Amino acid sequence: MNQPLTTFRIGVLVFPGALQSGAVAPGDVFRVANTMVLYRPANEHVHFETLWVGARGSSVTTLSGLQFPTVPMDAQFDALIVPGVDHDNPADLTRALDLLGPEQELLRQYALSGRLLASNCSSTFLVARTGQLAGRRATTSWWLSAKFRKHFPDVELDTEELIVRDGPFLSSGGMTAYIDMALWLVGHFASEELRQITAKILVADSNRSSQSPYIAAGIAQGNGHAMIERARRWLNEHMDRDWSMTELCEHCHTSSRTLLRRFQKAVGLSPIQYTQQLRVERAKGLLESSMLSLEDITGRCGYENVSTFSKVFKRWTNVTPREYRSRFGLRS
């Protein structure tokens, strides 16, 4: 006898200024997960139903003219996804948010239900405007961090993280992190195994967890003093070799004590820890997508021997490089 499917209903809020890929792509992730369920054990019989939700009647037309048929928010959902808000610069984002009064009220009401509310990129601003994120952790696109902190100082922003969950609130980083967010929901409602196989079919990195490797210090808006951005840029450029604090301090024209204090305050990590994180993210990409030996990967990530590299990698991921690579069906 076939076991009945457990259906999870995922709403995607659409509005005139919604980023269209963020409104459409999560549904594609869930459709792939539904297909993969057919090949999974019987105890994993789940089904994801994705519906577009609107606050403006039975359909919503985006700024580029794409029309979405919508259902009202009174339908029951297990989670609601909010795509990013289209904008060209931080000032433009404020103007776009000001036009989303109906959506803001819908989100405020939904947040009171205690069900999962998942924002992506700039839409975390829209959720924060409801007041429901006060005292909670969240993330957004790293390049909007200064603007977010200025307008919502009562929210604990962590733009180093790609995905942050605090109670019923889930937030994700830069625009394409909607893929990571949808995969997170697959794992949350179904299983880690289904999340992993869905990611493989999508050729998506199922294990990235940080925005740090993507931060372009030249246009970063405000994780503190310009000294910190100068230090970050230098560390990014020199992650594949040994370096000393003396070198870094000379480059930043400051003392070791001052740099360590300010860097820790701005980034939440020491320069050494920050470099380790960058190296581990690079290693993860190489382990997932190449047949390079562990010795080659070790060298490309700035370490002289596999043993040291493996210890650092496990400290950040809780698995060894060999165990991590085996998840992708590859042999070291």
Question: What key attributes describe this structure?
Answer:
about 325 residues, 14 helices, 10 strands, Arc Repressor Mutant, subunit A, alpha/beta, Rossmann fold, six-stranded mixed sheet
Structural class: alpha/beta
How many structural domains can be distinguished in the coordinates? 2
Radius of gyration: 21 Å
Q: From N to C, what is the helix and strand string?
A: EHEEEEHHEHEHEEEHHHHHHHHH
What integer is the average pLDDT?
88
Overall CATH architecture of the largest domain: 3-Layer(aba) Sandwich
Number of helices: 14
Q: Strand tally, please?
A: 10
Biggest sheet character: 6 strands, mixed
User: Numbering strands along the chain, what is their spatial order in the largest sheet?
Assistant: 2-1-5-6-10-9
- Cα distance spanning the termini: 42 Å
CATH superfamily of the largest domain: Class I glutamine amidotransferase (GATase) domain
Shape: globular
CATH domain class of the largest domain: Alpha Beta
Helix content: 40-55%
What is the CATH fold-level name of the largest domain?
Rossmann fold
Measured by DSSP, the beta-strand proportion falls in 5-15%
Low-confidence stretches: 216-224
Structure description:
This protein is α/β, with parallel strands linked by helices. It folds into 2 domains: 6-202, Class I glutamine amidotransferase (GATase) domain (Rossmann fold, 3-Layer(aba) Sandwich), CATH 3.40.50.880; 224-332, Arc Repressor Mutant, subunit A. It is 45% helix and 13% strand. It starts with 5 loop residues before the first strand and ends in a 6-residue tail after the last helix.
